[in-house]
Design goal:
There is one protein chain. This protein is mainly α. It folds into three domains: 286 residues, Na+/H+ antiporter like fold (Up-down Bundle); 60 residues; 82 residues, no CATH class. Helices cover 79% and strands 0% of the residues. It has 23 helices and no strands. Helix 9 runs parallel beside helix 11, helix 14 runs antiparallel to helix 15 and helix 22 packs antiparallel against helix 23. The longest helix is centred in the last third of the chain and has 34 residues. The protein is elongated, with a radius of gyration of 29 Å.
Length: 555
């Protein structure tokens, strides 16, 4: 039995990796292939993954994964960037969330016949946006920090606000009687107490980190901080989710500060990238395994209609209304935020799963729980796929964003790798000189090697997708090496180490090598350097020196 449990856990990990790679190759967010992988591994198809045997129910899964995802969103949010657009973020995460809940609730009640409570509950579930799901699609586009900052901040705060509304509504659905005034008061109480708890926990831990000068094991420390903030938020009667986001923003600001060693900072953020992926993979693979086509099909048309209403009506209206007084954003920027902020993601899926779990416990009508779950899954899939496929075109059409070429990305990674290797050499030199201890050297070097390997893997993936990149870079490096040799020979001639006859012979040799190099280039040959060297060789040594030292990048 224990072996089977480990086998299923291994299936989740392997399935997540394969699905994520498929998403990269297809240029779509990972959540869709993760859902498909879970479904294929689940009881409906291969029957290899059976979450019930792992002791995993959907509510427990949500309780584990959602705090990790929200804390990660908070860590990524830069307070400096947030301060420049705080009013816009506040409007989107309050006014827009309430409008979304109301808009979806009205459509769900009058068009699909759900009860008012279930309709607004569905609205709260789908109010949680996940533009981060398509951020990888937008990374190749030079979108302004002002716009991208809004999208990233919306992910964190919007999710927290939607969860708070969800908790109020699920209490009403369970039989708690609340008037509209009481419901609003409950929501505000949850929000305020959670923010205060998050601020207090974040401030306290940052002071402790500074006082104790904690510079290592920041990943473990951040996990402890997450547990503390979530626990305190729940203890004071607020939302652990909101408290975790607020605390994460404060801790993230500390991690970006000068008191944290750059390597430790980079390692911590990189590790949280992996934790976030694991949490998302866990949610969607297990969720996929719980899905049956028979349970989704009845809600397919309803989900598509609601998705269209949301994408083309509810979302644009809520964003434009909430950002009406924001003069710093153009109409095109507001429309872009509206479109790209459309995808529903991890939190929506987890909240929908919680409704099903409550129905299984007998505290929610089973038929309406199944309807909410089925509609939510269809909306998630529809919005993620449509937005991810059109985000690039929207960025170019609305913002005039230009796509970074693969070659530019490859060159950037090359420079980054070079910088990391130079830093690694300096670290080794400091250790040799006794400036740092062996223990610290081993710890920092291990983390640094992981980051170097990650960058190298990314370069390999890029060259796998674009084989001509590596060939082009190889040619450029060979030319650079030849130019270095020419410089050396030139210096030798100036120092009277070789005769002019020998000098001309060597230059002729390099001329022929550059000629052959141009012949084998896959792209348009670069004859310019070869031609200039040929002319300079014929003109004499001084012209060669002028040519070489005058070319940028060949010194």
């Amino acid at each position: 039995m224990q072996i089977e449990v480990f086998a299923q856990l291994a299936l989740i990990v392997v399935g997540g990796i394969i699905a994520a790679r498929a998403g990269q190759r297809l240029r779509i967010p990972a959540v869709i292939p993760l859902l498909i992988a879970g479904y294929l591994l689940g009881p409906d198809v291969l029957n290899l993954l059976r979450p019930a045997e792992l002791g995993i129910n959907l509510e427990l899964l949500a309780a584990i994964a959602v705090p990790l995802v929200l804390f990660y969103d908070g860590l990524k949010t830069d307070p400096k960037q947030l301060s420049t657009s705080f009013r816009a973020v506040a409007a989107i995460t309050t006014v827009a969330v309430l409008f979304t809940v109301f808009g979806i609730g009205v459509v769900a009640h009058f068009v699909f016949g759900l009860s008012w409570v279930s309709s607004f509950l569905l609205g709260a579930i789908l109010a949680s946006t996940d533009p981060a799901a398509i951020i990888p699609v937008l990374r190749k586009l030079n979108i302004s920090k002002k716009v991208s900052g809004i999208l990233e901040a919306e992910t964190a705060f919007n999710d927290a606000a939607a969860i708070s509304l969800f908790m109020v509504l699920i209490s009403v659905a369970a039989g708690q009687t609340l008037s509209l005034t009481e419901a609003v008061g409950e929501f505000l109480l949850i929000a305020i107490s959670s923010i205060v708890a998050g601020l207090a926990v974040g401030w306290l831990y940052v002071q402790l980190l500074r006082f104790l000068r904690v510079e290592s094991d920041l990943l473990m420390v951040s996990l402890i901080i997450l547990a503390s903030s979530y626990g305190v938020g729940e203890y004071v009667g607020g939302s652990g989710a909101i408290a975790a986001v607020v605390t994460a923003i404060i801790v993230g600001a500390h991690l970006r500060g000068p008191r944290v060693e750059p390597l430790a900072r980079a390692y911590t953020f990189s590790a949280w990238d992996e934790l976030n992926f694991i949490a998302i993979a866990l949610v969607f693979i297990v969720l996929g395994a719980e899905i049956s086509i028979a349970s989704i099909l009845p809600f397919l048309l309803i989900g598509v209609v609601l998705s269209l209403a949301f994408v083309y009506l509810v979302r644009p209206m809520t964003v434009l209304a909430s950002m009406f007084f924001e003069k710093d954003f153009s109409l095109n920027e507001k429309l872009f935020i509206s479109w790209v902020g459309g995808p529903r993601g991890t939190v929506s899926a987890a909240l929908a799963a919680m409704v099903v779990s409550r129905a299984a416990q007998g505290t929610f009508p089973l038929a309406e729980a199944n309807a909410i779950f089925g509609i939510a899954i269809v909306v998630i899939c529809f919005t993620v796929v449509v937005t991810s496929l059109t985000a690039g075109a929207a960025a170019k059409g609305l913002l005039g964003a230009m796509e970074d070429s693969a070659a530019e990305r490859y060159r950037m990674l090359s420079v980054e790798l070079k910088a990391m290797r130079i830093a690694s050499k300096r670290l080794h030199d400091d250790w040799n000189k006794g400036i740092i201890s062996t223990k610290m050297y081993n710890e920092l070097n291990s983390r640094h090697m992981e980051m170097i390997a990650k960058t190298a893997r990314e370069m390999s993936e890029l060259t796998f997708e674009n084989p001509a990149l590596e060939d082009s870079e190889r040619m450029a490096h060979v030319k650079l090496m030849l130019a270095t040799q020419i410089n050396t020979v030139n210096d030798a001639f100036d120092n009277k180490e070789i005769s002019e006859q020998s000098y001309r012979a060597l230059m002729k040799k390099y001329d022929e090598m550059l000629g052959r190099l141009s012949e084998v280039e896959a792209s348009a040959p670069d004859f310019s350097l070869q031609k200039e060297i040929s002319e300079a060789v014929n003109a004499g040594p001084k012209h060669v020196k002028k040519l070489i030292t005058g070319r940028k990048g060949l010194k």
